[in-house]
């Protein structure tokens, strides 16, 4: 029977030392370029690692978990598309958890880190409770949080500057001549809901516009809830000339309601979403949206986790991703949108550097 590939043949194929191959296959800290070479050579040679034996020896599983609120939300899909290749290049598999934003489920995921079924966790909770913070502080494996946590929390953290993002949207609508700008938000007890509510008030104040509770409605971060909330707002305040929506799913629900009411977008009511998901460009009319860098946040979180696995003693780091406004037909009309695309070859982007705000 022919002998299968060994670490010697892998080392020869990869052009690295036998010791480097051993370090990679046993999950020990190694330069990423070396990891890529060794894994590529092992795959070419058909080397099959004994995962059970390796994990017992190295105390690593070479798996990382990502816990998110809703696996069907395009925001999290954009994150996964960036997290997975970064981890795969380093020899890790990705395990997905959808928690439905239930705090008890998220706490359970944090608690289960003690079972060592993964080497680390990336988590994006909508609510951060005292129990979350307690479990993060005592976690038995590295954790990276996507989203805001209280200042001083010792955890690697990737944030979106949604406060600046809301300001970009309100400024855009104001410059288009909109003065009665309604707001459809998600739950106020969530991190993004609270941040975006505060940012909406601040943005109106900066433009000299009054805050009016009659044109604010709170729902949830889903399309059906967005439609319900938008309908309630329009029934109560039919004179709004723009809607700022706390995410794209809410905005799509609002577009459904406006069409059903016979209102033209953007002639009668302009609409802006947040997240700039794939659905924004595919909607009708195409949706102006604030990109919060979902893909960039996912990539940054994966890189922070790998850095932590290679250096467990380093100080926690915070990465803030700057927002940008992506202008489409729901605010400027199809003709203007088409002209912009024709002249630039892509959707109009107005970048703004982060000033350190939190989502």
Automatic annotation (TrEMBL):
Pfam families: LacI (PF00356), Peripla_BP_3 (PF13377). SUPFAM superfamilies: lambda repressor-like DNA-binding domains (SSF47413), Periplasmic binding protein-like I (SSF53822). SMART domains: HTH_LACI. Gene3D superfamilies: 3.40.50.2300, lambda repressor-like DNA-binding domains. The keyword Cell inner membrane does not apply. Residues 5-58 form the HTH lacI-type domain. Residues 336-359 are annotated as: Disordered. This is LacI family transcriptional regulator. It comes from Nonomuraea africana.
């Amino acid at each position: 029977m022919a002998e299968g590939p060994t670490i010697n043949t892998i080392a020869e194929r990869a052009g690295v030392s036998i010791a480097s191959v051993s370090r990679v296959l046993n999950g020990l800290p190694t330069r990423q370029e070396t990891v890529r070479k060794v894994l590529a050579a092992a795959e070419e040679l058909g080397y099959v690692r004994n995962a059970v034996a390796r994990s017992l020896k190295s105390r690593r599983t070479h798996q990382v978990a990502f816990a998110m609120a809703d696996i069907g939300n395009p925001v999290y899909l954009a994150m996964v598309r960036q997290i997975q290749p970064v981890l795969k290049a380093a020899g890790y598999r990705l395990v997905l958890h959808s928690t439905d934003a239930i705090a008890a489920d998220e706490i359970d995921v944090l608690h289960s880190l003690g079972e060592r079924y993964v080497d680390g966790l990336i988590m994006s909770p909508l609510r951060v409770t005292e129990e979350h913070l307690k479990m993060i502080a005592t976690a038995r494996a590295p954790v990276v949080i996507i989203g805001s946590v209280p200042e001083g929390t010792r955890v690697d953290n990737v944030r979106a500057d949604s406060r600046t993002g809301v300001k970009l949207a309100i400024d855009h609508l104001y410059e288009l001549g909109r003065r009665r700008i309604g707001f459809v938000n998600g739950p106020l007890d969530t991190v993004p809901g609270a941040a975006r509510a505060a940012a909406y008030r601040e943005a109106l104040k900066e433009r000299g516009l009054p805050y009016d509770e009659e044109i604010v409605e709170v729902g949830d971060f889903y399309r059906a809830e967005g439609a319900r909330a938008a309908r309630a707002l329009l029934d109560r305040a039919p004179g709004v000339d723009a809607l700022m929506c706390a995410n794209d799913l809410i905005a799509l629900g609002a577009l459904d309601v406006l069409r059903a009411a016979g209102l033209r977008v953007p002639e009668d009511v302009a609409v802006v979403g947040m997240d700039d998901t794939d659905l924004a460009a595919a909607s009708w009319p195409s949706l102006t949206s604030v990109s919060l860098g979902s893909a960039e946040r996912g990539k940054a979180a994966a890189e922070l986790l790998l850095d932590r696995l290679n250096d467990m003693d380093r100080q926690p780091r915070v990465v803030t991703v700057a927002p940008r406004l992506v202008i489409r037909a729901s605010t400027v009309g199809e003709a203007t949108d088409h002209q912009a695309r024709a002249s630039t070859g892509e959707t109009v982007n107005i970048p703004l550097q982060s000033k350190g705000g939190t989502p």
